[in-house]
Write a structure and sequence with these properties.
With 316 residues, this protein is of the alpha/beta class. It is built from nine helices and twelve strands. A seven-stranded mixed beta sheet has the order 4-3-2-5-6-12-7, sandwiched between helices. Strands 9-10-11 form a three-stranded antiparallel beta sheet. Strand 2, helix 4 and strand 3 form a beta-alpha-beta unit. Helix 1 runs parallel beside helix 5 and helix 6 packs across helix 8. The termini are far apart.
Amino acid sequence: MTKEQDIQTEKTRSQESYCCGNASTEDKEDTQLDKLSEENKIRKFVRNEYGTIASGNQGVPNLDPTISAESNYTDYTKEELETIPKQANLGLGSGNPVRLANIQSGEVVVDLGSGAGIDCFLASQQVGATGKVIGIDMTPQMIDQARENAIKNNYKNVEFRLGEIEHLPVANESVDVIVSNCVINLSVNKNQVFREAFRILKPGGRLVVSDILLAHDFPEVVKEALQDVPGCVSRAWVEDEYLKSIRAAGFNDVKVLESQVIKPQKRTSEGSQSDTRKRKMVLSGKSIEVELTAEEDEVLTTAIMKGHIQAYKPKN
């Protein structure tokens, strides 16, 4: 090979490498844009659903897991509900994180996804006049409803801020306690939520959340049926993955305080094969019909659960 041929070969290789490099960069950018577009689509869907609920058109929310549970699980008592504005309870929670958070007088509490204010108003009784409760919600209608509830009932130590839980409008290390009730599972970026929670907590501060979790993954046929549904159940994480994300944000002493399996409401009919059955059910507000074997049905029946989780930000 002549010197001129060597030079030409090297030029060709350089051009090929350059072109491939550009294509790779463009592919990555396209992937990132697709991801952002999908996240924005989910966020808009969730905001619209909760906006509709807050506006009084409740019906059956498309984000509701439509599941049944026993009455012995930690939830709001009649006595608790009688101490707060009736309009603050929209029936959208999955537990009662305030009851387990050990909130003290004078503390600053932040509620992630505060809705019409139910957990904020309960927490306000515990922080007292020297404390403060801040509710964060991304739905303007929810913020309007919560503020109206606070004004009408003369709550002086509660305020509500419009914002996303992935980007909290709260100063660094300014909060003693963070609570959240069946909201983080809907986030488009749960890892970022926990990083933000860590950022705003004071050293030694604590996180107590109630959420929908999965004891294990759904059968593949159910996962496929729910893949385009941005609801409470379809976007829930397996418990171990959820706890791992909290630890990765910097928290320690991460543990499940209590949990309970909750069963999907299903109707069953004969399937196309003798060892399968058709199940009609509602999950994440979507009516689906899938054929499951007895083993797959058992996996589905035991997959969904409520859980209260606690974690601490390390002290300096």
